[in-house]
Design the sequence.
């Protein structure tokens, strides 16, 4: 019988639901055990902690514990992975991912930012001869994986991020948050604020002001510092924005900055006054009457020639050498923590954006160690 005749014979038979492979699969499902899956789920709830109260599905946890939550198993700088978050506390540094891109208004993809930052961070050994610091020797650092965000619900994601940041801050460990789009800046500060006995200053590197109340009727990545500076102990008078400018400027954002007396530093200001003087001024403003300072670094503050992998690129930004020097100065007085946001791997080229983002984090940590604000410098005897 030819293939055409076979097909004709099949066509002659009536199709019955019970003859379908899909029906067989449904019936077969009832024979498959689920005990191991239930054990994994129970362990995840213990190790990953209870989710925020707004999360209806209580099988979800605060910190993701699935095997793929680290994107192939890589941790930042190959730091130990802390699976059981109940054991968290006593470390110098914790790396945590916030893989959210629900707040993007142009190009998405930042949900893959934490994975890319971790993966490319393995290119290096933790030692920099210019800094005289070996981060692996000087810091007790762990990676707790990613916060369980809700991809289609930005407000529930904010609840999760804020709760996770509160958990970290309460235990006095320096957080390095891997974004994610810049909307996470608001819940990062919201979660931290109740545990800071005084005001929080914010040093914010960006090409965009991110001070609009909403975009498309939601609190998106152009809104974090409008809402963060509504928090009573995170006043806009301690907000310093560095690198603002270009043709994606926001009139509402600049209006809010003027009304709330935030400090806006443009690229031209940096060129005119010089890096050192600008950063000294930024530290003065951020620390005035503040108990702690948070560093928010948007990778799009760097010119897209060097950081193409981002959602809203704006030409004319900072150069990598300038950025690395500036963040080192920003860290020398100490920091409460930092976030590195808006790395979007789908638009990156040869991982250069993620690589630079990781180097920004490493230089901040090295500066804190050098200044005696975090960890310790290991000295060889004799």
Sequence:
């Amino acid at each position: 019988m030819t293939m055409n005749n076979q097909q004709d014979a099949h066509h002659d038979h009536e199709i019955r639901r019970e003859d379908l492979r899909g029906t067989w699969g449904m019936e077969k499902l009832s024979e498959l055990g689920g005990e191991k899956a239930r054990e994994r789920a129970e362990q995840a709830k213990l190790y990953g902690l209870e989710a925020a109260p707004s999360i209806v599905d209580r099988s979800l946890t605060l910190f993701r514990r699935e095997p793929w939550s680290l994107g192939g198993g890589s941790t930042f700088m190959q730091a130990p992975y802390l699976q059981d978050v109940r054991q968290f506390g006593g470390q110098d540094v914790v790396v945590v991912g916030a893989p959210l891109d629900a707040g993007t208004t142009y190009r998405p993809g930042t949900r893959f930012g934490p994975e890319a930052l971790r993966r490319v961070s393995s290119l290096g050994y933790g030692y920099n001869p210019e800094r005289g610091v070996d981060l692996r020797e000087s810091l007790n650092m762990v990676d707790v994986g990613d916060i369980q965000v809700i991809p289609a619900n930005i407000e529930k994601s904010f609840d999760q991020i804020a709760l996770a940041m509160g958990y970290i801050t309460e235990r006095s460990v320096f957080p390095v948050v891997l974004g994610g789009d810049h909307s996470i800046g608001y819940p990062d500060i919201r979660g931290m604020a109740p545990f800071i006995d005084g005001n929080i200053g914010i040093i914010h590197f960006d090409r965009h002001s991110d001070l609009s109340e909403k975009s498309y009727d939601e609190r998106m990545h152009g809104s974090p510092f409008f809402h963060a500076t509504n928090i009573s102990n995170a006043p806009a008078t301690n907000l310093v924005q560095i690198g603002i400018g270009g043709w994606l400027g926001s009139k509402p954002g600049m209006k809010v900055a003027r009304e709330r007396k935030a400090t806006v530093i443009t690229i031209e200001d940096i060129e005119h006054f010089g890096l050192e003087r600008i950063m000294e001024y930024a530290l003065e403003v951020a620390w005035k009457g503040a108990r702690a300072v948070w560093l928010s670094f948007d990778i799009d503050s760097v010119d897209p020639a060097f950081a193409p992998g981002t959602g809203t690129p704006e030409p004319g930004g900072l150069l990598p050498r300038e950025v690395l020097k500036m963040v080192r100065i920003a860290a020398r007085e100490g920091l409460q923590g930092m976030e590195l946001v808006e790395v979007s791997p789908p638009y990156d080229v040869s991982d250069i954006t993620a690589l630079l983002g990781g180097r920004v984090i490493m230089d901040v940590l090295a500066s804190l160690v050098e200044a005696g604000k975090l960890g310790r410098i290991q000295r060889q005897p004799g």
Remarks:
- Residues 61-370 form a domain with the Arginase; Chain A fold (CATH 3.40.800.10).
